[in-house]
Amino acid sequence: MHKISLQQIEDDFSEDFIVVNGDNLFDLDWSEMMKVHSKNKSNVTIALTTVDDVSAYGVAALKGEMIVRFVEKPIASEAPSNFINSGYYIFSPSIFDILPEKEKFSLEKEFFPIIAANKKLFGYKDEVSQWFDTGTFSRWERVINEWKNKLD
Fold it and tell me: Measuring CA to CA, which residue among 103, 86, 80, 98 is closest to residue 42?
């Protein structure tokens, strides 16, 4: 697998662009998410979804649509909401001006806190679409059995 950094693609993007984690599956309405992104003049908009057990995910602390911070893997009683990071994002080209200097960094732990501190990190709340974490074989099996548009 060939990996590239965000710094390497800067010259390729002059408009908003989509970034997705490769281990999730989401039947997201991108046009509605883009409306939220544009309305808020966001640097990054994260598609947020809900799960029964938030303790395995990054949970958004929200002020309206603005993401103030994420709480990683909280116990349910201490979670600031039931909205988690789905791994689906819209980035504005303005992010290239504030990327960390180093080539390798964590979006969730090192980059999103910078965006949140600048009040430019927003969430698109989606409670109706199907979302699956496909990061393990057992989770992938669940997708095969439950995805609404599966092909037989």
Answer: 98
From residue 64, alpha-carbon distances to 57, 61, 68, 78 in Å are 20, 10, 10, 19
Domains in the chain, ordered, with CATH?
A: 15-146 (3.90.550.10)
Average pLDDT for 73-84? 92
pLDDT of the residue at 2: 42
CA–CA separation, 38 and 17 (whole Å) = 12
Q: How does strand 83-91 pair with strand 44-50?
A: antiparallel
Structure tokens at 22: 């490769």
Going 48 to 27 to 111 to 93, the CA torsion angle's sign is negative
pTM of the complete model:
0.83
- Classify each residue of 74-108 as buried b or exposed e, where b means 16 or more C-beta atoms within 10 Å of its C-beta: beeeebebbbbbbbbbbbbeebeeebeeeeeeebe
